[in-house]
Design a protein that fits this description.
single chain, about 450 residues, mainly beta, 2 domains, twelve-stranded mixed beta sheet, 6 helices, about 10% helix
Length: about 450
């Protein structure tokens, strides 16, 4: 199935901290520790800094951020992006990076000049200050940005009547109500261009269990450690924030997921248009070492997510792609917002133990993934579903409703109606094109 963990598990780093030595009159300043991702060292990882971490890891244009590179190897790795985003969410427990010590100032006395020690007084023993036992921040949490600082803040969108999941597949499937759960909308300060960065994520405990064709439960929970690209809200309007998704189950052959990703970049017109930055090569696991596979159960047993492609059908080495244009459509009104919803997805069998989405009957682990959302127009289509069986699924078309930056800043999300779409290849019932409607109370 589609989508393994968006980022890999964070690497474990051993960081040596230079000690303050009082030797021979030479003073060396001790290194300082800040949260990973705190680019300006002010004690807080703001949303713009989190976006900078994501951009640097993906080779996108961004200002330098040495404090995003925890192991100082010159690159921002996926694990370091995880740490940046965790620090953004909670600076009180963030992983730390030690900033390089300033150049020392030599205060040695002139050459050949010796200052005698006082009589009967032993030289002072050199003191070494030990590094902290762990790289965990135990400072008090930074205060939440206030309205006077310009931040739109973090607010919950509790799903309301009309929220649903629409499914297009070979089987006739009725829309499924999304009647419980909420989404966290987290937006930063409004810039001179009238835009503010925004992220969206499913809150604990997740959405209600979704029964797909009475065959399996789709379990939508908060993301474990994955992160999605940061979106934005346009407070004064004029930005093109519509979405167009084009899935293609069969663009050619591939020898690995990386090979497929490269071919998807060509197929989609650029790597920036490949949804989640990945293609999937059928016959390989989605996560970890991405071993060759025949079944989802095989990948689950290896801890490598799910198996791309249908189980035991022998359709390996086919490259599947989803292309995403996140700047489609006409300029939107004031308050238009776009984000990618971060969530974790597992599949449990029905009836299993008779308890939906309790984690006891997981048959497929899709893992952390993203669903593109917008308050303007979305359109999606899936070509060559089930490797070219039925005609294309879709198009799915829907239009949301924008709120306003002033209302959002005051905590009022009631006018916001998100619309989105995504594709899932080779599920238990074949390919599925999904449309998502989330209306805020």
């Amino acid at each position: 199935m589609r989508f393994g963990s968006l980022w890999r598990h964070p690497l474990l780093f051993a960081i040596a901290l230079a000690a303050t030595l009082a030797v021979g009159g030479s003073a060396v300043s001790r290194a300082e520790a800040v949260c990973v991702g705190d680019c300006d060292g002010d004690g807080t990882v703001r949303i713009a800094e989190a976006q900078r971490c994501v951009n640097l890891a993906n080779g996108l244009p961004a200002d330098a951020c040495p404090n995003a590179d925890q192991d100082r190897d010159g690159t921002v790795a996926p694990g370091e992006v995880d740490l940046c985003l965790k620090a953004f969410r909670d600076s009180s427990t963030c992983a730390m990076v030690f900033t390089p010590a300033p150049t020392h100032t030599n205060t040695l006395p002139p050459t050949n000049t010796k200052t005698p020690l006082p009589t009967n007084t032993a030289p002072a023993t050199s003191t070494v200050t030990a590094p902290p036992p762990t790289a965990t921040n135990t400072r008090s949490p930074s205060p939440t940005p206030t309205a006077t600082e310009g931040s739109l803040g973090k607010h919950d969108c509790t799903v309301d009547t009309g929220s649903k999941l629409t499914l297009l597949a070979s089987l006739p499937l009725s829309p499924l109500p999304v009647n419980s759960g909420s989404v966290a909308i987290d937006c930063g300060a409004v810039g001179a261009d009238g835009n503010a960065a925004c992220s969206c994520s499913v809150n604990t405990p997740g959405f209600n269990a979704l029964s797909i064709a009475g065959i399996f439960w789709a379990c939508v929970k908060p993301a474990v450690s994955g992160a999605c690209p940061v979106g934005k809200i346009d407070c004064d309007g004029g930005s093109q924030l519509g979405l167009t998704l084009t899935g293609n189950r069969k663009i050619g052959t591939c020898t690995s997921n990386n090979d497929c990703t490269s071919k998807c970049a060509t197929h989609c017109g650029g790597a920036q248009f490949v949804f989640t930055g990945k293609g999937q090569c059928e016959g390989f696991c989605t996560d970890g070492a991405q071993s060759a596979c025949l079944t989802d159960a095989g990948c689950l047993g290896l801890g490598q997510g799910s198996c791309n492609g249908p189980d035991n059908v022998g359709l390996g080495n086919i490259c599947d792609c989803t292309c995403l244009d996140s700047g489609a459509g006409s300029p939107g009104p004031a308050g238009t917002m776009q984000c990618q919803l971060a969530f974790n997805l597992t599949v449990e069998s029905i009836p299993g133990n008779g308890k939906a989405c309790d984690g006891a009957d997981v048959t497929i682990t899709i893992g952390d993934t993203c669903a593109p959302l917008t308050t303007t127009a979305v359109s999606a289509i899936e070509n060559n579903p089930n490797n070219g069986g039925p005609p294309p699924f879709g198009p799915f078309d829907a239009t949301g409703t924008a709120g306003s930056c002033a209302a959002l800043q005051s905590g009022d999300t009631s006018a916001i109606a998100f619309r989105g779409a995504t594709q899932f290849y080779a599920s238990t019932i074949g390919d599925i094109l999904t449309g998502l409607a989330l209306n805020c109370k």
